[in-house]
Amino acid sequence: MDIGIDKINFFTSNLYVDMTELAIARNEDPDKYLIGIGQSKMAVIPPTQDIVTMGANAAESMLTDEDKEDIDLVIVGTESGIDNSKSAAAYIADLLGLRDDIRTFEIKQACYGATAALQMAKAQVTLNPDSKALIIGADIAKYGLNTPGEVTQGGGAVAMLVSANPKLLSFEGGSTYLSRNIMDFWRPLGHSEALVDGKYSSNVYLDFFNNVYSNYKDKTGFTIDNFEALLFHLPYTKMGLKALREAQKDADAKVSAKLAHRFEDSRLYNRQVGNLYTGSLYLSLLSLLENNDDLKSGDRLGLFSYGSGAQGEFFAMLLRKDYRKYLMNTTNEFLQKRTCISVEEYEKIYLKSLHYENNSELDLDMDDAQFVLTGIKENQRQYKNRI
């Protein structure tokens, strides 16, 4: 029985800041951001959007009534939780109108959370082939204004429906994984902005990739020639390029060129959004599927997931027959319709989103999404479905 991703969709806010304008405002050469980091735009998440609303917005437009009836598991992978006790999945299931006899919970391990959720969904559907699982990777990356990490901020949500006999991709075999207790990136309780040792974190990312990728090849007997594309967690897109270059050391010129071309397809969306932590690997996957025109059914994709602190995993998925017919193909148009705001406007939104006041109402004028956060009442978040 094949199990995998039946549907996938993405959501972010309708606002972004241009990285050239941000570079000029920070007295930096724009090429440092555009080429050195590999980012051209950065999503700006207003106070009216959080992981709940973004997750619900990503899921709603891809789910049918039949899907909603079949879903019996909802997992949200995030490191941007809105409550120390209650899961974002419970809120999302309610906003989507899912039935009550389901499991909902939230999972955390930095940027690895959505992959952990995906693997749990695989196990759930293996045991219950008629069920479907909704997996959401949603985050808002914050490092602070005028900080070295500012250029790698962003946010959004990727929603995936996992089922038997999926239309898009099926899991192939097992995974290889690695876990170590290290301090490359962390966010203590009470901190709205992450703490990171940037150079160390980049080195650990590459070390983890080389470890799990090498172990996967040893375990399966595969070589670089067996993969039609390699996908990476992209905290910024240059990071994935560095990992790809590690893999290309084993490839001949033809294979190396193929992988490089498909990597460019896979980072188109991430370049325009920035870091969405748990969702970034799967936004890259969506970017590849929607922007590449030479992959075919049966092709093997290698996926590297990494979460600081740290956890890494490498696994493979196979493209299903006629998978292109089932893609929504709405992301490019969605990203192009966003509104570019000034650096000054971005800074005001950023500072306002750091603190939510109790018994307050939020201004919805700049947010055109279906699901929005309207305010806080008696310490309870107030959500609205505009449709």
Any overview of this molecule?
There is one protein chain. The chain is an alpha+beta fold. The chain folds into two domains: 3-168 and 328-385, Thiolase/Chalcone synthase (Peroxisomal Thiolase, Chain A, domain 1, 3-Layer(aba) Sandwich), CATH 3.40.47.10; 170-326, 3-Layer(aba) Sandwich (Peroxisomal Thiolase, Chain A, domain 1), CATH 3.40.47. It has helices at residues 19-25, 30-37, 51-60, 65-70, 88-96, 113-127, 198-220, 237-248, 253-266, 268-273, 280-291, 331-336, 343-353; strands spanning 3-11, 15-18, 41-43, 71-77, 103-107, 132-141, 154-164, 169-179, 185-186, 195-196, 229-232, 300-307, 311-319, 339-340, 360-361, 371-377, 380-385. The strands form four sheets. A nine-stranded mixed β-sheet has the order 5-4-6-7-1-8-13-12-11, sandwiched between helices. It is globular.
Beta strand count: 17
Biggest pleated sheet: 9 strands, mixed
Helicity range:
25-40%
Q: Which H/E pattern describes the elements?
A: EEHHEHHEHEHEEEEEHEHHHHEEHEHEEE
Sum up the overall morphology in one term: globular
Oligomer: single chain
Helix count equals: 13
Instruction: Report how far apart the termini are.
Output: 38 Å
Family: Belongs to the thiolase-like superfamily. HMG-CoA synthase family.
Pfam family, one: HMG_CoA_synt_N
Protein name: Hydroxymethylglutaryl-CoA synthase
Binding site for (3S)-3-hydroxy-3-methylglutaryl-CoA: 29, 143, 242, 275
